[in-house]
Amino acid sequence: MDETLKLILGELEKVNTRLDRLDSGQKELKISQDQLQQNQNQLQTSQDQLQKNQNQLQASQDQLQKNQNQLQASQDQLQKNQNQLQTSQDQLKDNLINGLGPYFEHIEKHIDAKTSKITETLEDQQRVIDTLAARSVRHESDIKDFKRILKNQ
Fold first, then answer.
1. From the centroid of its chain, how far is CA 29?
2. Where is this region: Disordered (predicted)?
3. C-alpha–C-alpha distance, residues 104 and 7, integer Å
């Protein structure tokens, strides 16, 4: 019976060793599972952060697109205003050029009319001066004649 007990004891020791190894393996498995869970949690946190960053990037791109659209609208309005300004300048230039011709013609006619009146007035004045000069000479001559007659008398 000793021998049977020894065999049973040997087998029990083997079973104990196996159970110890099994316990040890389960502990290692538990540690590995805990590490795997920790890594999965870190991966989930990283994925959440990545999703948050992607959402922020999308929001930034949307804002950039909105700003570009506003800039384009402003540039279109500026171009429209420049075209209107150019049209207004062209109209002003045409009006100025077309309006100056008749204006200068009117001024020229006015100057010609005034020049004619002044010329007529000057000619009249010159005739008066000539007449007065001729009379003055004749009167001078008459006075000399009277003086001579008075002297001779």
1. 69
2. 39-87
3. 141
Looking at residue 19, its pLDDT comes to 87
Instruction: DSSP letter for 51, please.
Output: H
Amino acid, res. 16: N
83, two tokens: 């075209």
**pLDDT beneath 70: ranges in the chain:** none
Which ranges in the chain belong to alpha helices (H)?
A: 2-152
Give me 80's structure tokens: 């429209």
CA distances from 62 to 49, 51, 57, 65, 73 (A): 20, 16, 9, 5, 16
Spatial distance between the Cα atoms of 52 and 23, rounded to a whole number of angstroms: 43
